[in-house]
Amino acid sequence: MGNRGCLHEGREVVRRWRTRAWITCATEFRGRRVQQWAPGRYTVLFFHDEAVALAAGQRPCAECRHPDHRRFLDAWEVVHGERPRAPAVDAVLHAERLDGPTPQSRRRSWRDLPTGVFVVHDDEPALVLGDAVVPWSVDVGYQRPVARPLAGQATVLTPPSTVEVVSAGYRPVIHPRAVELVA
User: Fold this and answer.
1) pLDDT reading at 59 higher than 90
2) CA 72 – CA 165 distance, rounded (Å)
3) Distance separating alpha carbons of residues 89 and 83, to the nearest angstrom
4) Which of 17, 53, 116, 140 could form a disulfide with 47 if both were Cys (CB 3.0 to 4.6 A apart)?
5) Number of domains the chain contains
C-alpha cells in the first residue's frame, strides 16, 4: 500500500500528494491498521504490486519495510556513490516523477531495461519481465505477455533513478500472476 500524505477530504480525493515522501508500506505492521478515509490521517493507496508502486514514483518505507528500504538504499549507493538519507531520495524522485500535472516518461533502449520496470507498449502500461513484456491494466492486472522487443527505444514510466536502482540489484516484488504468465 502507498502513502503520499492526507489526500482526502471526507471520502473524496482532492490532491495527488501532500508530501514528497511517496512511500510503499506493508499492509500489516505490528498490528497497526489505518482506517480508510480517517479525518486528518494519510490516505491509504493500494497498488497491484511493488513494480506498479515504483512506476508511480513510490519507494519502500523505512519503518514497516525496513529490509527493503535498506536494499533500495544499497542499490542507490551503488549507482550514485554515496548513501543518501530518505529525504534526499524523495527530492530526486519527486523531481523525476512529474512534468506539471502529468507523469514524466523517458526513452531508453529496450535491451538496457531491467526486470521490474514499467514501460509503454502498444499504448498501454506494461511490465518488463526478463525477455517478456507483460501488459497491465488497473481493471485486469497482468495480462498475456508478449516478446520483449530486441531493438529500439522504449518509453519508460518508472522514474530514471528507480530504473538505475533496479538495474543495480534492487528486486521489486512482482505479483505471482505476472511470473506465472511468463513461465
Assistant:
1) yes
2) 7
3) 10
4) 53
5) 1
What pLDDT digit, counting tens, does each position of 105-136 carry?
799 999 999 999 999 999 999 999 999 999 99
Cell numbers at 158, concatenated: 518508472
Are residues 50 and 173 in contact, defined by beta-carbon separation less than 8 angstroms?
Answer: yes
In the beta sheet, which residues pair with residue 161? none
87-110 confidence digits (pLDDT tens): 999 999 999 987 666 666 799 999
CA dist list (Å): 83 to 68, 91, 118: 15, 14, 25
Cα–Cα dist 91/43, whole Å: 21
Which residue bears the cell 497491484?
48
- Dmax (CA) for the chain in angstroms is 50
In this predicted structure, what is the pLDDT of residue 109?
Answer: 96
- Whether 61 contacts 3, CB under 8 Å: yes
What does pTM read for this prediction? 0.90
Domain ranges, residue 141:
2-182
Helix (H, G, I), strand (E, B) or coil at 102: strand
Cα-only R_g, the chain: 16
d(CA 42, CA 164): 29
